[in-house]
Request: fold
Amino acid sequence: MCTDMSMLLELQMRLRRAVLGGDTAEIVAAIQGDGLDPAARVGIYRHHAFATLGDALQGTFPVVCRLVDKRFFAYVAHEYLREHPPHSRCLVEYGADFADFLAGFAPCEKLPYLADVARFEWALNIAATVREATPLQAEMLATVPAQKAAYVALRLQPSLSYFASPWPIDAIWQANKMDEVPPIDITSGGASLEIRRAGEAVSWRRLDPGSFEFRTALADGLVLAAAMAAATMRDPAFDLTAALRQVFAEGLAVAFCISPKQETSR
Amino acid sequence: MTKRRPIASCSVGIGLRSPHVSEIAATRPELAFLEVHAENYMAETPALDRLLELRRDYPVSLHGVALSLGSAEELDRRHLHRFKALIERIEPMLVSEHLAWSAIDGTYLNDLLPLPYTEASLDLFCRHVEEAQEGLGRRLLIENPSSYLRYRYSPIPEAEFIAEIACRTGCGILCDVNNIHVSAWNFGFDPITYLDALPVDAIGEIHLAGHHAAEDVDILIDDHGSRVAKPVWELHTAALRRFGPVPTLIEWDTNLPTLEVLLDEANHAGELAHVHRYVDAA
Reply:
């Protein structure tokens, strides 16, 4: 029985390798020809897997696809799939490291902003697939003793992403969602972005440097003192009270804890 | 002399695809049920909210495509939990999966890959069906796959294999008539003999879909991308004669047509179900 199972496992591992574009030689011996080269039969499954997974990536990264054109995207997707096949069985969760892959993919070097467009589209995808949690009311923090206030860590909405790019990623993305792409000045400077779910919609906005640093630090789980220190480094005039009020007004925090042992600087 | 027993429902449904959701919500066409791929609704998307709204007016069938019951490893418990959570929210009329495997050693291949049909794979598959039915708290229907390859060592005929799964685990069978036609063409077996080997009492649903012929080889490809082909309607008629009218689904997943075309196919299936609303009882 155990031997039978290990034989089946070995068979499935071999077919997996062949479907993902690896060697078919080690599986064809187990396949009946039925009037056709067994490798061609494996090819039917391989074609289906690559086509449908490529479509899934295209659905998640439509602007990346448009920027490189469909045929080139199919090639990029093929290479990515071979090296990074999905782990999750829900395809909307496939592509978390696609941006990193693009950043290191030599044929895309001429589009230095491409990986950041992918990061932006992945953040939009996260926001579209994660429900908003009930916001924490600011009054709840009133229970925290004053001497411990610096050690409060907030948990933020699970749909939130923060990322900064040296390129105007939001403008590039928006322009490429239009039928006729208007001219974009890609040298117009970078963008520090907050992306989130708001009700049924996905929204994003640019943040000033202090707020971006503060919120990114909070999202990373840093306590208020550490987040404030990080924000003040970027913006000496950073106002903690106003920034915190804004975090609550926008419903970004969903829970908090007091973390006295945490380092207060990154 | 055979007795004829009436079958109450002639229920035909369609696969729900996102481009049709708004029109269905607005026009509320007469359909017995809607079927969705379970994995498309496991994340908290606006699409899930819309499905929950449609659920108020239509029974929903959850069709799993990624449980990978045929994998030679333990079932993915996380995926099973997500499936169960979705079942609890949707309260589906039917829950189905496939006689196939699609994931191994942490890699999900997004395809329904064939199993060799052996005593060992039968034991494995039955154990996984039992675990899944236990974990989901529901009886599963298991669908026969369309196949493009078979293994040198695969001694049990597919129809017998799936009948034995139903017998051992108490699961039902989702009889995909298009898949039988496609596999019968690809491997040269008689589709009627296949139908005859399926236990009537286990049949819980029928799937109908389109296929196309591969360009360079004599192979039919199941693509759910066109109208149901004439020989598949004929085979479906034979299935109705044998099984009586069971919930029947028009599946159309690629090259999506207008909703009108889909409803036209559903009407045709409904007419056939009406004609064959009596089944010969043994």
